[in-house]
């Protein structure tokens, strides 16, 4: 069964998240809620692919080697997060994500400089913040 999540209320989507993260046995309603959950998760794939393509366009002319990875969070991880954080499914902001992977720290610096230079004055993009976690093993930037 294919569900159009645009026709499903946010409260129904949140109910699906609550139901599935609670570990209840699947009833007939539970199976329907699982379909709602799966459709909601899948609805993030289109915007994620669009974002990845836009990143490719934005990085045209970068000159360094990079790889853009995208992923939808897997269902068990979403359910664990819902249970752990006691949040609604529609509140989760990391169901889909992409990252730009470069080989070296210098590559990270060059990439951030390139992106910053190319979006300065842009009507479409702005750099909200840059947080450097390299000392702890990761870097996170939000555009």
Characterization of this structure:
The chain is an alpha+beta fold and 143 residues long. It has five helices and four strands, in the order αααβαβαββ. The chain has helices at residues 10-21, 28-42, 45-58, 75-85, 105-119; strands spanning 67-72, 96-101, 129-131, 140-142. The strands form two sheets. Strands 1-2 form a two-stranded antiparallel sheet. A two-stranded antiparallel ribbon has the order 3-4. A hairpin with an 8-residue loop joins strand 3 (129-131) and strand 4 (140-142). Helix 1 packs across helix 2 (28-42) and helix 1 packs across helix 4 (75-85). The model has no long low-confidence stretch (mean pLDDT 89).
Gross morphology: elongated
- Estimated structural class: alpha+beta
Strand content: 5-15%
Average pLDDT number: 89
Helix content range: 40-55%
Provide a brief overview of the structure.
The protein is α+β, with helices and mostly antiparallel strands and 143 residues long.
Offer a few descriptive terms:
about 45% helix, about 140 residues, 5 helices, about 15% strand, alpha+beta
């Amino acid at each position: 069964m294919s569900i159009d999540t645009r026709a499903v209320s946010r409260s129904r989507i949140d109910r699906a998240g609550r139901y599935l993260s609670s570990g209840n046995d699947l009833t007939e309603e539970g199976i329907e809620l699982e379909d709602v959950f799966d459709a909601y998760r899948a609805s993030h794939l289109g915007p994620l692919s669009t974002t990845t393509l836009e990143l490719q366009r934005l990085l045209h002319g970068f000159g360094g080697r990079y790889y853009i990875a995208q992923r939808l969070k897997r269902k068990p991880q979403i359910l664990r997060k819902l249970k752990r954080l006691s949040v609604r499914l529609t509140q989760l902001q990391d169901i889909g994500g992409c990252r730009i992977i470069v080989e070296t720290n210098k590559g990270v610096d060059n990439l951030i400089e390139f992106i910053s230079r190319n979006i300065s004055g842009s009507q479409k993009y702005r750099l909200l913040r840059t947080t450097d976690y390299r000392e702890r093993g990761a870097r996170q930037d939000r555009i």
